[in-house]
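User: Hi! I'm working on a homework problem where we have to compare a predicted structure to a textbook description. Could you give me the structure for the chain below?
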Amino acid sequence: MTAVKRGGREALKLATPREIEARLGGVTAVKTILAKIDGSSNDAAVLELSYLVAVQFRSHITCLHVRADSLRLLLSAADGIGLAAGAIPVSPQVQQTLLEAETVRARSARQCFEAFCQEHHLQVAESPSTLPEASASWREVVGDPRDATTTTARFYDMLVLARAQTSGDLYVDDIGSVLMDCGRPVLLAVSPPPKTIATTIAIAWKETAEAARALAAASPLLAGAKQIVVLTLQEDRAVDSPIERSAQALANQLHWRGLQASARTIPHGGQTPAQSIVAAAREAGADLLVMGAYGHSRARELVFGGMTRHILTNAGIPVLLFH
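Assistant: Happy to help. Predicted structure tokens:
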């Protein structure tokens, strides 16, 4: 374990798993990870990001694939041609084609999982292993991808999803629904996957309950980071504004926990707030952005702020979100 002097105190550099556990008081929060894969080109990125987290904490990764049932496939087909749910003029041949496509997706997802385990020499076990190594298991269920992912994720420490894309079975509002309802931190994967995760962490900070909860959810990853940058958006031209003082106060709190942290206020510019935050995180060399997710549900229709929606679809680095 390597220590450096800073301000009369000792501070740890990038920590080993055991050192991270010591910082967390002997409790490591990320011991079980749910990786949602769907048989698309997104799967490799989701699995690789899950692995980067798992090796830090010797976690168990459960790879979840949700196979749509026949009724749901028919309803989707009817909706796709603008028909009411009760009117499904889909021929038996089309029904068979839809079911075969689901089988192909399931097979592709399973093959990706098996190749992933083989590449990383992961022990495949139905439950977390007692060995000091990461492990993995496969789980396939039948149902609605959004609902099944939401309910399953509640039993895990972290959920890893692909960023919203047209090739997956979860679209932006589906991901938002999972994020709002699962009660767990959601880690969004990007393609190609990064080489490291959480060595430099950017925190999108604002004095809100959502941001505070996201910060708490990220604590295990923060404990192992080399560097943390607290980012806040400048909302006025004042020097030493309450927003800047809040960001610096958070950086000071992280210092007191033995972490290397600094604060940065992002000035007004020509970009949207979301673009500014992501650009500043990338400029800082961050391989993870932590932020609160803002939105609410009315009759299962989600309304997001512009920043959350942009992050769900366009973030170029992994993002840990919590509502």
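For your comparison, note the following. DSSP finds eleven helices and 15 strands in the chain. The longest strand covers residues 60-67. Good luck with the assignment!
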